[in-house]
Amino acid sequence: MPNPPVYPPTRRALLRWSAALLLGAACWGVAQADGADLGQFSTQRGDDGLELSFVANFELPHSVEDALHKSVPIYFTADVALLRHRWYWRDARVANVSRTWRLAYQPLTRQYKVSTGGLNQSFASLPEAMALVRGQSGWHIADAKELEDGGGYYIEFSYRLDTSQLPRPMQIGLGATQGWGLSIEHTVALNPDFSVHSATP
């Protein structure tokens, strides 16, 4: 059997990066649960580093809304990893960030309270509160000193209804069939200017 072709390092790097671009296009909208998807996802490089903006599209499952109105706080968590391809070794993990939104209903005032990053906001209706929970604009995910020219970067993104922060008795037996499996996972390549590589959803 003939030996497989051996490419020089620069060509191997180019082939891996091309594969990453194809992966970015293929993974748009993959690994969604409970009808959730990304309505908007973009990145922008600025003087301070890299910022991410996203909007998740989903409806709050009835079982989750019922628990919320019984004074059970609901948590949503987004995780972002910025990585860079390396032909000679495993990909470099450049930055990791996470953000959690806590949604609670206050029966006495009949208001919904959203807490994230040390900030608290109250809303008169659930749709208003969910508009804040579903996305983030201008989220700083990497410092300028961590970014180098030359491309090869990609993002691994996840957004989920975080059942690990529910009261322990509630966690037993929860599953996707009950509406608690809401999640989105998204991997996308970045252009050399750190914008999201265009892909068709």
Description:
The chain is α+β, with helices and mostly antiparallel strands and about 200 residues long. It has one domain (about 10-190). Helices cover about 20% and strands about 40% of the residues. It has helices at about 10-25, 60-70, 125-135, 170; strands spanning about 30-35, 35-45, 50-55, 75-85, 90-105, 110-115, 120-125, 135-145, 155-160, 185-190. A seven-stranded antiparallel sheet has the order 1-10-9-4-5-6-7. A three-stranded antiparallel sheet has the order 2-3-8. It is elongated.
Rg is 20 Å
**Percent of residues in beta strands:** 35-45%
- The number of helical elements comes to 4
Shape: elongated
Could you say which structural class the secondary elements and strand pairing correspond to?
alpha+beta
Biggest β-sheet: strands ordered side by side in the sheet: 1-10-9-4-5-6-7
The average pLDDT is: 83
> What is the total tally of β strands?
10
Poorly predicted tracts of residues: 1-30
**Largest sheet, described in full?**
7 strands, antiparallel
Distance between the termini: 41 Å
